[in-house]
Amino acid sequence: MVKGGLFAKVLQAGDFAGFSAGWREGDVVPTGFAPLDRLLPAGGVRLGSLVEWLSNGEASGAAALASAVACRLAGDADRAGDAPSTIVVVDRKGRFYPPAVLGWLERARAAGRPAPRLVVARPAHEADEVWAIDQALRCRGVSAVLAWPERIHSTAMRRWQLAARVSLAVGLFVRPLAASHEPSWAEARIAVAAQPGGSLTVRRLRLSLAGGPWAGEPLVQERSVEIGLDLSRGCAAASGQVSPAQPLPVPRILERERMACRAS
Amino acid sequence: MPRIMTIWLPRWAVQRRLIDNPALRKVPVFVCRRERRGVMTIVSWAWALPPRMESVHGGGRPSPPRIPPGMSLAEGMAVLALAHGSRACHVAEIDHDDPAADRAALERLARHSRRFAPIVALEDVERPECIHVDVTGTAGFFGGEAALVRTAAWTLAARGIHARVAIADTVGAAWAAAHHTESFDQRPAQPFRRRRRFAVVPPGEQAAALAGLPAAALRLDAAVLAALREVGIDSIGGILKVSRKSLASRFPSSLAVRLAQFTGGRAEPLAPTFGEELPRAVHVFDVPVSLREMEEDTITAIIERLVERCVGPLLARGEGVTSLQVRFERWAGTGERGPCPPVVIDVGLYRPSIVVRHVVDLVRLRMARVRLPREVESVAVEVVAAALAVCRQRSLFSAESESAAAEVGMLFDRLAGRLGAKAVFEPRIVDDAQPEHAWVGASPAAPGGGAPRASVTRARLAAPAERRPIWLLPRPVPLDVMAVVPAVADAGRPPVRFRYGGEIHEVATAHGPERIETAWWRGPIVRRDYHMVETRSGGRLWIFRRLKDGAWFLHGVFA
Q1: Could you report the per-residue pLDDT of A92-151, keeping only the tens digit for each?
Q2: DSSP designation for B235
Q3: CB contacts < 8 Å between A and B, how many?
Q4: What is the greatest pairwise CA distance in chain B?
Q5: Do B537 and A194 touch (CB under 8 A)?
Q6: What is the DSSP secondary structure assignment for residue B331, as one 8-state letter?
Q7: Disulfide: which of A99, B13, B168, B242 matches B174 by Cβ 3.0-4.6 Å?
């Protein structure tokens, strides 16, 4: 109780662990996913902060969700102004496949704004990756930096946090769930787990608070939510679409033992 | 008597790509143009380092396959497969033709060639591969013409550029000699000996020295060559024997013009197209200094001062730096090895810059990746390319967004400076069904002013975004399929259970198939049935069945 009360007072004072210091009132951008906004301490993504997405398995949909949030931040009408904002993807392993995301950026063009630019950087080494993220976060004009670093040293992450504060860029990092035990300077750490069901265009994802200064506080009302991610547009699915679809009838398996596939 | 040096860069379109990405030397590289109905035509191709394999028909190295420009890519691949096996086709790199970029790179090289003489021009054709330098009176500074051509050839070779260089009285003669430098080799022919890369035609002797060269060395078009072949003339000497009057009456006038240009009867002035001289600044040390003993700040301060001296004249012309070269002239000591080649740092910028601090930062980033010489005699900074700098009056309200855009441009410069130009790109969709080739990485142009590359258009996505994974594996991974449904296996249903990443995945739902089949003229045919499968834990994977043998592969992860 004592801890919670203190936290509330600090929040009221507008300075909690340095996260709120110096920010203006309107520096929070909704992610476009209302349940996700409820999980985040500021009710959205705070500009100039870092968010970690802890993925429960490679195919959990965490990278897609982070990309959707990055597109939302880049396409934010109030922030974009006349010049197109830029998303920088730091992809050391060379796995990022732009055709899955490029279509999402066109939504801004349809809305009459300049479409955000997507720029990919492929560093060859871990040190270059850390440096590239730092440089991108330091640059005004970059709205979001998307990366999936395997290891993050606490010092490097602190540097990223300070860099992001200067430029008001948002760092979105997709990491394995095992990283939840590591120290972090992220404002929020969201665990992402894929849920079975959904449809071809809609993915059901369960999000839960997995860390960050906000997670341990009793003020937090909700700790786990479920969202529907519309993969065709990169935004929240309409409420009717989220309901789990009927799985395809799986044919009866005739041979249970392991066998080599000789389909031909 | 004027003296012209011609630097010929064979297959320049491919060479340019090899300079940008040296790793491509190990694979065949095709530069292709998309013709009507999607047929890809080869513009140029090369395989710099083919594997050392024994010829099937006896010992020795197999001769390189003959794939002329204009051949379709499918035919070219077939010829390549005959010579080196089908694996060569699988690893081949295919790139879209970009004549503007080729020309720009050649112009940069032409600027670099100004160190030999002030008058430099490109070959006056649609796709130039030659640089002409007027070296009248300047060869003496390099130890004579023989030393000059050798220096030019090996200077370029040190930068990974294969060039052939020749000096003659006229542009036509120098062009012919550069294209046939091997005919000047007096040494006995040996199978593994490198071809001679340079030649000097003595003054006034081009007719005698080059008489044995084929008629094509006169830069004649195909129709004239065919007409000459019909009457049995196949060499320059044969043409020279025929009287001018007879030539004029029997052949197109272009032959007489080319012949006159070759002999010097008709002037062929060089037309430099590079504008004004670009600035250069040098700092020469009194004695050779050790870079190890010198602090980084000191060498940075020297470079900053040199860059300032270069940027000043450009600023007066309203231009900014787009490409810069820093050279550390090495001290080789008093040994017998002679002067060492300088260590060169090339810095490229995406948009013209007049900010000295920014340019110096880029140089520092590159310096951290280069092994600098132990001792240097001088440091030189040379602007290789400049362009009109965009200078606008600041507006009252949009100043912030303008400066943010400028910062983004600087960010790209810094990222490219440290990670490499190829490691920073802006993805663009291309109209291609094969997922691996459905996008290309374009150079991130200046914000607001960047135009897409000619070969890259705003094509539509081959499939809706929801059907494409966020992560695509660099190479499809074979799946260890554990359970299929035999009754429906032929219908192309995805496997029920498979092993990937040390885990067993059971498929709950699947969407597909999406058949992707490439056309035969594209080269190796790709025929796949893609499925998006959702496992019982909710993970989504993108797998395909290779129709050739029914094997299953994982190609993407809906991460």
Answers
A1: 999 999 999 988 887 767 777 778 889 999 999 999 999 999 999 999 889 999 999 988
A2: B
A3: 232
A4: 88
A5: yes
A6: P
A7: B168
| Residue A149 Cα, gap to closest chain B Cα (Å) | 14
State the residue range of the domain holding A225: 27-234
Q: Domain for residue A111, yes or no?
A: yes
In order of their start, the domains of chain B are: 28-91 (no CATH), 207-263 (no CATH), 282-421 (3.30.1490.100), 465-557 (no CATH)
- pLDDT bin (cut points 50, 70, 90) of residue B345 is confident
For an interface test with B, give the residue of A53, A58, A97, A140 to mutate (most B CBs within 10 A). Answer: A97
Cα–Cα nearest to B495, from A248, B506, B527 = B506
Q: How confident is the model at residue B283 (pLDDT cuts 50, 70, 90)?
A: very high
Question: Min CA distance, B483 vs chain A (Å)?
Answer: 6
Q: Which residues lie closer than 8 Å to A37 by C-beta, 6 or more apart?
A: A30, A31, A43, A44
Q: Which of A231, A251, A254 sits opposite B466 (nearest CB)?
A: A231
- CA dist., res. B232 & res. B295, Å (int): 70
Q: How confident is the model at residue A21 (pLDDT cuts 50, 70, 90)?
A: very low
The Cα-based distances of B100 to A248, B63, B110 in angstroms read: 52, 32, 15
Question: What is the chain A residue with the closest CA to B539?
Answer: A59
Distances (CA, A) of B8 to A162, A194, B3, B162: 53, 59, 16, 9
Tens of pLDDT, residue by residue over B476-534, are: 999 888 766 655 555 567 888 888 878 888 888 888 788 888 876 666 788 899 999 99
Instruction: Please check whether residue A188 lies inside any domain of the structure.
Output: yes
CA–CA dist A131, B13 (Å, integer): 33
A250: contact with B, CB 8 A cutoff: yes
Sheet holding B164-168, edge to edge: B120-122, B130-134, B4-8, B164-168, B198-200
Question: DSSP letter string over B349-375?
Answer: EEEEE--HHHHHHHHHHHHTTS---SE
The closest CB to that of A58, out of B418, B444, B559, belongs to: B559
pLDDT tens string B294-303 = 888 899 999 9
Residue B459 phi/psi, 5-degree rounding, is: -80, 165
Token look-up 């966020």 returns: B470
Distance from CA of B450 to the nearest CA of A (A): 11
Q: Number of structural domains, chain A?
A: 1
CB contact under 8 A, B538 and A118: no
Is residue A1 included in any domain, yes or no?
A: no
CATH (domain of A76): 3.40.50.300
For B250-293, strand residue ranges (E) read 280-290
Please answer whether residues A136 and A121 qualify as being in contact, where contact means their C-beta atoms are separated by less than 8 angstroms.
Answer: yes
Tokens of B89: 């086709």
Structural domain includes residue A3: no
The whole model's pTM is what?
0.67
d(Cα B510, Cα B542) in Å, to the nearest integer?
10
Indicate the residue of A84, A197, A232 with minimum beta-carbon distance to B447. Answer: A84
Q: What proportion of chain B, given as a percentage, has pLDDT over 90?
A: 22
